[in-house]
UniProtKB/TrEMBL annotation:
<comment type="similarity">
    <text>Belongs to the cysteine synthase/cystathionine beta-synthase family.</text>
</comment>
<keyword id="KW-0028">Amino-acid biosynthesis</keyword>
<dbReference type="GO" id="GO:0004124">
    <property type="term" value="F:cysteine synthase activity"/>
</dbReference>
<feature type="binding site">
    <location>
        <position position="72"/>
    </location>
    <ligand>
        <name>pyridoxal 5'-phosphate</name>
    </ligand>
</feature>
<comment type="pathway">
    <text>Amino-acid biosynthesis; L-cysteine biosynthesis; L-cysteine from L-serine: step 2/2.</text>
</comment>
<dbReference type="InterPro" id="IPR001926">
    <property type="entry name" value="TrpB-like_PALP"/>
</dbReference>
<keyword id="KW-0663">Pyridoxal phosphate</keyword>
<dbReference type="Pfam" id="PF00291">
    <property type="entry name" value="PALP"/>
</dbReference>
<feature type="binding site">
    <location>
        <begin position="175"/>
        <end position="179"/>
    </location>
    <ligand>
        <name>pyridoxal 5'-phosphate</name>
    </ligand>
</feature>
<protein>
    <recommendedName>
        <fullName>Cysteine synthase</fullName>
        <ecNumber>2.5.1.47</ecNumber>
    </recommendedName>
</protein>
<dbReference type="InterPro" id="IPR005858">
    <property type="entry name" value="CysM"/>
</dbReference>
<dbReference type="GO" id="GO:0006535">
    <property type="term" value="P:cysteine biosynthetic process from serine"/>
</dbReference>
<keyword id="KW-0808">Transferase</keyword>
<dbReference type="InterPro" id="IPR036052">
    <property type="entry name" value="TrpB-like_PALP_sf"/>
</dbReference>
<dbReference type="InterPro" id="IPR005856">
    <property type="entry name" value="Cys_synth"/>
</dbReference>
<keyword id="KW-0198">Cysteine biosynthesis</keyword>
<feature type="domain" description="Tryptophan synthase beta chain-like PALP">
    <location>
        <begin position="6"/>
        <end position="282"/>
    </location>
</feature>
Amino acid sequence: MNNFILDQIGNTPLVEAKKLINKPGVTLLLKLEGNNPGGSVKDRPAYNMIKSALERGDINKDTKLIEATSGNTGIALAMIAGLYGLNIELVMPENSTKERVQTMRAYGAKVTLTPAQVGIEGSRDYAESKVANEGYVMINQFGNDDNWKAHYKTTGPEIWNDTNGKVTHFVSSMGTTGTIMGTSTYLKEQNSDIQIVGVQPDDVSKIPGIRKWPKEYLPKIFNPDKVDQIIEVTETEAIQMTKRLAKEEGIFAGMSSGGAVAAALKLIETIDSGVVVAIVCDRGDRYLSSDLFE
């Protein structure tokens, strides 16, 4: 019997979308990462990054940890750092939803809010200055191989096993890019014909959790060779699909999940057969104070 909360990370449900598509020969499966104990896909890398760093001796209970986050990674890190008795400061833009800030604080983390106009890049700059000048240690989800390796060890194998090796396309929103890098690496090892599809916002859209990074902020773990195709979605498409997921499929998720599923439907328009798996990366209750569900 698994009786420790960290044993509940992963092995999330893979459910078929019944209403969103009607195309014989094509199946759309949604991986419900909101079922992780911390409520998002980020439980996987947060656990692997902290556990691996402790095992290597890179950090200990005296280490002052810091990380810039747009939300879900911070919640996962706060939960897991608390379980290991570690001190962590999480830095995020001041326009982040209050549910995220309150959840991190509930888990015992210190939360620092940076000006909204400088975005997550400003949060990253603040964290890096604390590392350079005050002896903090950054988890560094954007450049930490333990991020993508979490998905290589768990997300990829789960998708392969739960589809009995029949998956043909994998669709994932791209933020830190850990999910798509690790899952791609594993799935391509099983069958190099599986198509890996990344999701980005178009040039004028802002979608929490999905980014088109400026070159100087591009995650160091990102390898473009592991992504076969990038599909862009608009803010409006992401919002509308998030609402449709709740209303038509009973899946209450955040906006980046809506973006991923909107991209999956664009992909499905171009294929005649296949098993498409898309990541639904968190739960919608994290966005109730925003205008997402107005």
